[in-house]
Amino acid sequence: MRPSRTIAGVGWGLLGGYVALSVVRHAMVRRAWEPPTRGPEPDVVVLQPILSGDPLLAEQLATNLANHPYARFRWLVDTGDVEGQRIAASLAEGCDRVEVRLYEAAPASANPKVFKLARAVDASDDLVAVLDDDTVLPPGTLARASTLLAHADLVTGIPYYLAEGGPWSRLVAAFVNGNALLTYLPLSLVAPPVSINGMFYLTTRVALERAGGFGAVEDKVCDDYELARLYRRAGLRLAQASLPHPLRTTVPSARSYSRIMRRWLVFSLRLLRDEADPALAALVVAPVVAPGAALACAVVARRPALAAAMLVAVTAKAASTARLRQHLLGTRTTPVDLGLEVVSDLLLPVHVLAAVAARGRITWRGKPLRVARDGRIDR
C-alpha cells in the first residue's frame, strides 16, 4: 500500500503543478499581449513559396492580395507543379503587384521551401516578408509589423487555426490553438525568442544578408529555428509580436494528421535539445508531460479520483484558453472543438513519444527523410 500512496502522491503533485502552471501561463499571455500600433503602409515584398494540393490555396492567396493592396507579392512555384502554376497565373493576371517565379526542383539535400527563398530576394528589396501559402495576414498586419523594426531586426507573429473542415483538420487546429498563445507569448516575457514562427515573419534585406541569408540554412529542415539561430549569432534582434494571423489547412486522414504531428514534434525536440533552459522546461515541457504522467500514476495507483481530477484540469485549461482566444483574437470555440482541444492535449504525450521513437524520421512534402542531429536533411 505504501508504494501505491507514494505514486498517488506524485500524481496529485503533478496535477497541482499543472494547474499552477496553467494559471501562470494565462496570466503571462495577458501581460505580454500588446498589439503594435499601425504605421504607414510599408514598401514590402511578400515571398510565398507555393505548393498546390490543398483546395483552399487559391482562396488564401486571393485573400492576402485583397487584405494588402499596397504590398508586392512574389509567388515561388516549382516548374513541376502544374496546378500551382495555373492557380498563381490566374490570380496574377492583370495584377502588377504579383510576380510569379518558377524554380526547378530542389536537390535532395536541400529544403524545398528555403531553396526557393534563397533565390527570391532581389538587391532592390528593402523589407522582406515570408508568408506560408496556407496563412492569411489580416489587413494592417504588415503596417503594424513594420513599426516594430525600429527596435528589432525580425518580427514574427502568432498563428491560430480556423477550426473547420473534417475531424483531422480540426484536431490539428485544436493542437495549434491550444498551445500557440501559451507558448510564444509567455516565453517572450522571460527572454528573447530562441526561434520564430515560420508561417509569417518580416525582416529587412540588410539584416537578412548580415545573418547570412537563406542560403546559409538551405540544407536545414527546420528553417524557422535555423534562421533564428543565424540572427542570434549575428547579434540581431528577434521580436515576438502580438500579431495574430489565421491558417487553414486541409488534413484529409488520420495518417496525414499523424505525419504532421510527428514532423512538428521532431522539430520541437531538436529545439529543446539545443536550447534547454529552465524557462523552456517550466513553460513548455512540464505542461505537456504533467497530464499524461498524472494519469499514468492514477492507473498504477488505482486512483480514479486522481484521473477524474486531471481530466477536469485539462478541460478547464482548454476552456480558459478558448476564453483567452475570444478576448484577444475575437474567435469563438464550439463545444466540439473544445472537446477536440482536450483530446489533443491528452494525445500530446503520445505524439512526443512517437517523435522520440522516430529518431528524426519524418515525411515532408510527400517524401520520407531524416533530420540529422545538426538539422541537416539525411535521406
| Physical arrangement of strands within the biggest beta sheet | 3-2-1-4-6-5-7
Looking at the structure, the CATH topology of the largest domain is Spore Coat Polysaccharide Biosynthesis Protein SpsA, Chain A
Poorly predicted segments: none
The helix count comes to 12
Q: In the residues, how many domains can be counted?
A: 2
By CATH, the architecture of the largest domain is named Alpha-Beta Complex
How many distinct beta strands?
A: 10
Structural class label: alpha/beta
Question: Any idea what the CATH superfamily of the largest domain is called?
Answer: Spore Coat Polysaccharide Biosynthesis Protein SpsA, Chain A
Q: How much strand?
A: 15-25%
Note down, in words, how this protein is organized.
The chain is of the alpha/beta class. The protein folds into two domains: 2-31 and 273-378, no CATH class; 39-167 and 189-264, Spore Coat Polysaccharide Biosynthesis Protein SpsA, Chain A. 54% of the residues lie in helices and 16% in strands. The chain has twelve helices and ten strands. The protein has helices at 2-32, 57-67, 82-92, 112-117, 141-148, 167-190, 205-211, 223-233, 254-274, 278-301, 304-329, 335-358, and strands spanning 44-50, 72-78, 98-103, 127-131, 154-161, 200-204, 238-247, 361-364, 367-371, 377-378. The strands form two sheets. The chain has a seven-stranded mixed sheet with strand order 3-2-1-4-6-5-7. A three-stranded antiparallel sheet has the order 8-9-10. Strand 2 (72-78), helix 3 (82-92) and strand 3 form a beta-alpha-beta unit. Helix 10 (278-301) crosses helix 12 (335-358). The protein is globular and about 75 Å long. It starts with a helix and ends with a strand.
